[in-house]
Amino acid sequence: MNNPRPQEWKAEELSQGKIIDYKAFNFVDGEGVRNSLYVSGCMFHCEGCYNVATWSFNAGIPYTKELEERIMDDLAQPYVQGLTLLGGEPFLNTGILIPLLKRIKRELPNKDIWSWTGYTWDELELETEDKMEMLRLVDILVDGRYDFRKRDLTLQFRGSSNQRIIDVQESLKQDAIIVWKKLQK
User: By C-alpha distance, which of 92, 82, 68 is closest to 29?
Assistant: First the structure.
């Protein structure tokens, strides 16, 4: 597993603007019916990662305007609660994600945005401005690297007990980490 120094990994240097997959209308990547965007590239390389295929920034296909239109059309469905960002590492793909998230907030403000990240909340606070800008656009963050030694398949929406489900907007307001109020375990 890799542990970055603050601001060591820069999205503009690493991201190739690619995604591994887009899955519409699923029930596993967060609360409610969701659309999930799996981005390419991750530097954390957590031992036991279930998605090793996403580690390469060159894997997958280019993110396109056509895909963005499909995401927006799928999100507009009344039964869809929101978009989930996974990977790979979403916070190393801010160039494609920030414009998408801003558009969602503008055009579909009732939809929520979830993101998984290998960064912890404390690490993100010391990161580059683009990562902080993206964090401010996220509603729920599952933070921290997957730790196979703390693996627990009974946990809600995460793979290891060190990971947290954080209510980003409430945490920013209170300047403290606020755990998602619907957390079951």
Answer: 82
pLDDT at 185: 58
State in Å, rounded, how far the first CA of the chain is from the last one: 25
The CATH number of domain 11-174, selected from 3.20.20.70, 2.60.40.2250, 3.40.50.300, 3.40.980.10: 3.20.20.70
Counting as low any pLDDT under 50, the low residues of the chain are none
Distance between alpha carbon 15 and the CA centroid of its chain, in Å? Answer: 15
**What is the DSSP code string of 51-75?**
TGGG--TTSSEE--HHHHHHHHHHH
Q: Cα dist. 26→11, 75, 76, 104 in Å? A: 28, 12, 15, 18
pLDDT of amino acid 1: 67
Candidates 49, 4, 34, 43; CA nearest to 115 is: 34
